[in-house]
Write a structure and sequence with these properties.
It is a single chain. With 139 residues, the chain is α+β, with helices and mostly antiparallel strands. It contains 5 helices and 4 strands. The radius of gyration is 23 Å and the shape is extended. It starts with a helix and ends with a helix.
């Protein structure tokens, strides 16, 4: 989160919040419920990223102007989670279309698997040596 506030690269942040807890009952502590505290923290974090804070001490200064969007739903339920997955799936597909990419292409996954197979070959060789096997077990 510190990188989002003070990093040299600006990254857009999407926050998702819920008005009501998944549980029907909520604890009231110091005059507010846990859900109310979470909700206010969501809004406060987004506002802090937007407006920042000036301070002569560099590590306490925040430039603000960090792009943030907030999506608020009533309550997290199975249907809501499904809707969120669909939303981000469509968003990913549309961005890929705009950028000329197949967002669901498996080439990156295939590359990762082929590299991991090379690691497995090395690991299998090392496991044949009892001394190295003891060392690898410690990892």
């Amino acid at each position: 989160f510190q990188m989002l506030h003070q990093g040299t690269d600006t990254a857009a942040l999407e926050m998702i919040g819920f008005k009501h807890s998944q549980m029907e009952a909520d604890l009231r502590i110091e005059g507010t419920t846990c859900q109310e505290k979470l909700y206010c923290n969501l809004l406060g974090s987004a506002l802090a990223l937007a407006v920042g804070k000036k301070n002569p001490e560099l590590n306490c200064s925040f430039s603000g102007n960090r792009p943030t969007s907030i999506l608020i739903a009533k309550q997290l339920k199975a249907a809501t989670l499904g809707e969120l997955v669909a939303l981000y799936e469509h968003k990913t597909a549309f961005q890929g279309y705009i950028w000329g990419l197949n967002s669901f292409d498996q080439e990156g996954v295939k590359l990762g698997k082929s590299v991991s197979e090379e690691f497995l070959k090395v690991l299998k060789k090392e496991l044949n040596d009892p001394l190295k096997r003891v060392f690898l077990d410690l990892l």
